[in-house]
Amino acid sequence: MAAYCQVTQTGPQFGHKVSHAQNKTKRRFDPNIQKKTYFVASLGRKVTLNVSARGIKVIDTRGIESVIAELQARGEKI
Question: One MF term from GO for this chain (predicted)?
Fold first, then answer.
């Protein structure tokens, strides 16, 4: 599963791991991706989304109907 949130559109970021001796090696920061299933009344079915922890908070705040409408307007497959 790719480290990509469908709601916030965040993916992996890259940076350096820095040791005590200041040696810098490349590393990858992955978002906290969870697979969540929501019931969407307007569609009349369940929808499974790959969302980050922040994306779950966005859905809790704005509501699943609003988020699904935005995803559909963006052209994302649901």
Answer: structural constituent of ribosome
